[in-house]
Design goal:
The chain is mainly β. It contains one helix and six strands.
Amino acid sequence: MSEPKRRATVGEALARLPGTAGERSVEVFTHGSLVVKLYAPRDTDPQTPHSRDEVYIVAHGKGDFVHQGQRVHFGQGDFLFAAAGEEHRFENFSDLALWVLFYGPEGGEAAVEPADQT
């Protein structure tokens, strides 16, 4: 059995987009419950809530992340999180490409309070 691919680049993933049916995301890695994609919406972001927790890491671009009715400006290198089932989308973006990491069980993981850092 061959060794799984352990590196993906934005350029290689973007070269596979749009997909044959116009898809704006492409899967680049899987391991256990982890699925990594590159998402590059154009003009609008039509996504609906997902059934698993997801992390976004902004590969390039900037814009607004609308999450549960709140708007947050983001830029290259930023980390964004959307729990399973939460409404979210990207607006006012330009030249956007995001790494998307889906993980955990259907329905998402339970929130864990951060440890006291004092």
